[in-house]
């Protein structure tokens, strides 16, 4: 009879199945005994039946006796293993058991295995993006370039640096000019040292690719990103060839392509574009006047508390604005007047700063002189201000840290005198109030009425100087308003000589103005250029202004800068928008609106509606453009009905006699060019002039000049 060793009966297979199920249940219990694998249960205990058919029972301990299914007592092995009719040694899985890989029932899943722990986290790029966002936020708060560079180095993952460029620029785009300037400064600092040139280029490529998405959240994203790219080119962290290469990778219909075009045409094509781009977000000083003043006030307060002169001098030196030390002097003296107990400390600081050469002699004199000019206002808060100042001046001179030149404009008692007479002083006080009200109300007609009420046209240049000086120390809105006001004043009550005289006064005092306004030279050049673009000044007037300035003065340099701005390509459009658009954009829009309302009226419109449209434009100082375009349209369309509109506007006071005269003057000045398109332009213009004289539209001065020019006009026609 063949042996059945090595094979399983059907009964044994059933036992194996049940044992496997029980093993899974018991193995999950923490209190289960040491178990053996189900396969070892079978492989170790093959059931063997003796030839006699009976199992021996002698000497079997009671606890090792088990009844079989047939009711017979059978001996079983210890722990329940073996014996006919038994399950063998159940679930024996101790460490000594071995898996027989030759077993026909071998299952590889029963091989021992060990679970290995693994940290589940974000992908490396996501972690990098989170980290750099924190670095950028901290940099915007502290302005510490070195700390930001150090943090970026420690972060590692240099292969992701293009994403840092993208994140930095995109975060700055949605913030103020200060953060935009800080972002550009940081990119320049990181260039080559931390971030390679290729990575910066790649970062900007990513930005250009995402320009469409950025434009959804940031309305002027195209212009801002174009300026970032122009700034990067100016700062030499992007090669100029980058623009050409980038255009090839972008669709012409994409915002990214428009960004490149804007950077090329609006920011990088004009002479001196580098200076304009660098100063677009506040200049290369990276610090505003207000911030400097606050730091000066803080360090002086801290000095009064601590009395540490060396530390105060160190803080003044770290400001890095030696041209602005007169502000330190002025504020220190005011603080000495406010806190009488602090006067010895303040004088000690000023003396030591002068002896060390930290504050120059000229800066010290200017600080005292500025305080002298504001003594009247200061006396409102400190009644003894004048007396205190008169005692401080001789003390400082006697100790040798204040130059005696301060007394050149002083009386015998040492009081700094006012060079202007009483009338000029009162005029200045009045116009400061008028200008402040204008900046609040934007009401040009009201300002003109206020000036006429003052009745001092001989002081018009002084008004212009004060207007621009106040605007330069304010935001772009006020600068734009000042330029618009100049256009209106030139048409209404200011002569060209008044405008020229005012700018001469500004340029003569440019060096002093720069003491209070860090970017005064650039701002004044823009005001000059804007005056030329707005036809307030002619280019020849700039030469006249230059001839009246001392040679080699800072004002001459400012004048040359203005001439360079005017000579640049697309100068008109760029200068009109130099302060962010504002009314510069409104002028262009107004021209389009004027043309449309005239076309509508000419095609059968109602006079009252046309007048209301002119009124709605809200630019009364620009109504001479209505006159000019109306006369040109009347010549082109051969429709004198438009004259009825001018008559109605004049009757209502909507267009003043000054505006009417200005419109006719502009037509007269451009008559030769107009005759190229309208052959009988001269003849028609003479007819309109005679008509206007009868209606009383024109000033007598124009009538006399027009009479002199009539033969020439007739010849032109």
UniProtKB/TrEMBL annotation:
Q: Which GO terms describe its molecular function?
A: ribosome binding
Give start and end of each MI domain. 127-248, 291-412, 426-547, 589-708
State the name under which the record lists this protein. Putative programmed cell death protein 4
A Gene Ontology biological process in which this protein takes part is: negative regulation of DNA-templated transcription
Places the protein is found:
Cytoplasm, Cytosol
Q: Where is the composition biased (Basic and acidic residues)?
A: 91-104
Instruction: Show the Pfam families listed in the entry.
Output: MA3 (PF02847)
What family is this?
Belongs to the PDCD4 family.
Classification via InterPro entries: ARM-type_fold, Initiation_fac_eIF4g_MI, PDCD4
Q: Which portions of the sequence form the region Disordered?
A: 76-120
Q: Where does the record place a coiled coil?
A: none
Species this chain originates from: Davidia involucrata
What is the predominant subcellular site recorded for this chain?
Answer: cytoplasm
Q: Which UniProt keywords apply?
A: Cytoplasm, Nucleus, Repeat, Translation regulation
GO CC, any one term? cytosol
């Amino acid at each position: 009879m063949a042996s059945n060793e090595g094979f399983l009966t059907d009964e044994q297979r059933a036992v194996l199945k049940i044992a496997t199920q029980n093993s899974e249940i018991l193995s999950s219990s923490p209190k289960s005994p040491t178990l053996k694998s189900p396969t070892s249960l079978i492989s170790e205990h093959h059931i063997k039946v003796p030839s006699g058919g009976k199992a021996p029972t002698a000497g079997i301990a009671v606890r090792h006796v088990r009844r079989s299914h047939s009711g017979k007592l059978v001996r079983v092995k210890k722990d329940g293993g073996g014996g006919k009719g038994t399950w063998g040694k159940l679930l024996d899985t101790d460490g000594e058991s071995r898996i027989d890989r030759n077993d026909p029932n071998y299952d590889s899943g029963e091989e021992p295995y060990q679970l290995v722990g693994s940290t589940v986290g974000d992908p490396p790029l996501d972690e990098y993006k989170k980290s750099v966002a924190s670095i950028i936020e901290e940099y915007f708060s502290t302005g510490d370039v070195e700390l930001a560079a150090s943090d970026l180095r420690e972060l590692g993952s240099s292969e992701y640096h293009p994403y840092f460029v993208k994140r930095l620029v995109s975060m700055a785009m949605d913030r103020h000019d200060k953060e935009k300037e800080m972002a550009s400064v940081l990119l320049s600092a990181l260039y080559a040292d931390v971030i390679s040139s290729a990575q910066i280029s790649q970062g900007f490529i990513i930005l250009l690719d995402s320009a469409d998405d950025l434009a959804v959240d940031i309305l002027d994203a195209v212009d801002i990103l174009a300026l970032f790219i122009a700034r990067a080119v100016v700062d030499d962290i992007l090669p100029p060839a980058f623009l050409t290469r980038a255009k090839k990778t972008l669709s012409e219909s994409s915002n990214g392509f428009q960004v490149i075009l804007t950077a090329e045409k609006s920011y990088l094509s004009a002479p001196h574009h580098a200076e304009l781009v660098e100063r677009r977000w506040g200049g290369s000083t990276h610090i505003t006047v207000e911030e400097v003043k606050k730091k000066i006030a803080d360090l002086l307060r801290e000095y009064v508390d601590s009395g540490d002169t060396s530390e105060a001098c160190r803080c003044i030196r770290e400001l890095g604005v030696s041209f602005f030390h007169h502000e330190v002097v002025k504020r220190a003296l005011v603080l000495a007047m406010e806190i009488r107990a602090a006067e010895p400390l303040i004088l000690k600081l000023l003396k030591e700063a002068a002896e060390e050469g930290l504050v120059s002699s000229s800066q010290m004199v200017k600080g005292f002189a500025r305080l002298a000019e504001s003594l009247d206002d200061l006396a409102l808060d400190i009644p003894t201000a004048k007396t205190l100042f008169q005692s401080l001046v001789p003390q400082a001179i006697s100790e040798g840290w204040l130059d005696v030149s301060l007394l050149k404009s002083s009386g015998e008692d040492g009081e700094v005198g006012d060079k202007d007479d009483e009338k000029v002083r009162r005029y200045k006080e009045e116009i400061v109030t008028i200008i402040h009200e204008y900046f609040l109300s934007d009401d040009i007609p009201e300002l003109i009425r206020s000036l006429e009420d003052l009745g001092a046209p001989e002081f018009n240049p002084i008004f212009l100087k004060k207007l621009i000086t106040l605007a330069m120390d304010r935001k772009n809105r006020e600068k734009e308003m000042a330029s618009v006001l100049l256009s209106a004043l030139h048409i209404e009550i200011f002569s060209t000589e008044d405008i020229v005289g005012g700018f001469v006064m500004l340029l003569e005092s440019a060096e002093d103005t720069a003491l209070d306004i860090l970017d005064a030279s650039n701002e004044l050049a823009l005001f000059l250029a804007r005056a030329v673009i707005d036809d307030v000044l002619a280019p020849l007037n700039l030469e006249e202004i230059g001839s009246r300035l001392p040679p080699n003065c800072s004002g001459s340099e400012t004048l040359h800068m203005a001439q360079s701005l005017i000579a640049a390509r697309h100068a008109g459009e760029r200068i009109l928008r130099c302060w962010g658009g504002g009314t510069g954009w409104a002028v262009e829009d107004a021209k389009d609106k004027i043309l449309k309302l005239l076309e509508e009226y000419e095609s059968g419109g109602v006079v009252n509606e046309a007048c209301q449209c002119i009124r709605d434009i809200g630019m009364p100082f620009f109504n001479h453009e209505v006159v000019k375009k109306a006369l040109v349209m009347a010549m082109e369309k051969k429709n004198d009905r438009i004259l009825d509109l001018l008559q109605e506007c004049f009757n209502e006071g909507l267009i003043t006699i000054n505006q009417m005269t200005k419109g006719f003057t502009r037509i007269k000045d451009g008559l030769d060019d107009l005759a190229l398109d309208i052959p009988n332009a001269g003849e028609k213009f003479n007819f309109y002039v005679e008509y206007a004289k009868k209606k009383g539209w024109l000033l007598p001065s124009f009538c006399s000049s027009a009479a002199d020019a009539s033969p020439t006009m007739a010849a032109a026609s």
